[in-house]
Amino acid sequence: MKFQLEHLIKLAQLSKLTLKKDEELKLTSELSSVVTWVDILKKANTKNIEPMFHPGDPTLRLRKDATLNDNSINKILINSPQKSNNFFIVPRVVD
Q1: For the chain, which ranges sit under pLDDT 50?
Q2: How far apart (Å, rounded) are the C-alpha atoms in residues 68 and 75?
């Protein structure tokens, strides 16, 4: 399939985009290259290749849960203009 200017105009209309003439020509050329590349990929022989669901290792590395007692609450609240019982006091946003 060859990507043509008519295809771009149709896509622009559907997505409510306004393109200048020079943008239309540039995008038509770029999208035509993409479509050509996809056509080449379609022709690749994948007959004896297993499908791949994820390119990386899907196994998650687990670590032990650890608690930290470093008094970080005080470090966080020190910059707060208003606080009460380890909480920030902020203006009400819902009536």
Answers
A1: none
A2: 14
